[in-house]
Design a protein that fits this description.
This protein is mostly helical. The chain contains 8 helices and no strands.
């Protein structure tokens, strides 16, 4: 595509987008991001611990935060993410910020929600390279986790459904309300 065609296409897209935003502000098609309406604080705190815990990986060095670093915009800022044994993955990691607002999870949309997504990287051989069974065995061997899972879920045994539920609950809180764009939408 030559430069002039590209420039006029880009201008058309920009005008369409900006006029759509202005129109949206008038008829409320777009809404500012709001904090989550309700979260289970026990699950959030447990999920936060799990999100940062590298013991959920085969190497004991990779956590969810390794690829979705909250201090770096919820991603690792790499062209392609690094997994177990320093293997380079095929794609980069999407940001976890505002991911609770996505219609589907992962770049290809293969997970319907955060809970389904949370279990994928743990068992992916190119990412955390563990199995769900081994992850549960590790968590079950840590008395602090055993107590906290029992307190939050009311069950004696830890299972992967609880792990993914807690991580998802924490990720629901990773939203960015009150951005400049949100304030513009509010007038």
């Amino acid at each position: 595509m030559n430069y002039l065609r590209f420039a006029s296409l880009a201008t058309a897209v920009l005008l369409t987008c900006t006029s759509g935003i202005a129109q949206a502000a008038d008829n409320s098609l777009y809404q500012p991001i709001a904090p989550p309406k309700s979260v289970d604080l026990g699950k959030v705190e447990l999920g936060k611990k799990l999100y940062f815990d590298p013991r959920l990986s085969k190497s004991g060095f990779i956590s969810c935060n390794s690829c979705h670093n909250l201090h770096m915009g919820g991603t690792d800022n790499l062209k392609t993410s690094i997994g177990d044994h320093w293997q380079q993955g095929p794609i980069n990691s999407p940001t976890v910020l505002n991911s609770s607002l996505n219609l589907a999870q992962f770049w290809d949309g293969r997970a319907a929600d955060l809970k389904e997504q949370a279990g994928g990287p743990i068992a992916n051989p190119g990412e955390m390279a563990f199995t769900h069974t081994l992850a549960i065995d590790v968590l079950s061997s840590i008395p602090g986790y055993v107590r906290e899972f029992k307190m939050v879920f009311g069950q004696e045994q830890i299972n992967i459904d609880q792990v993914t539920s807690a991580i998802a609950e924490f990720e629901k809180t990773l939203v960015t309300p009150n951005s400049k764009f949100d304030r513009w939408l509010l007038g």
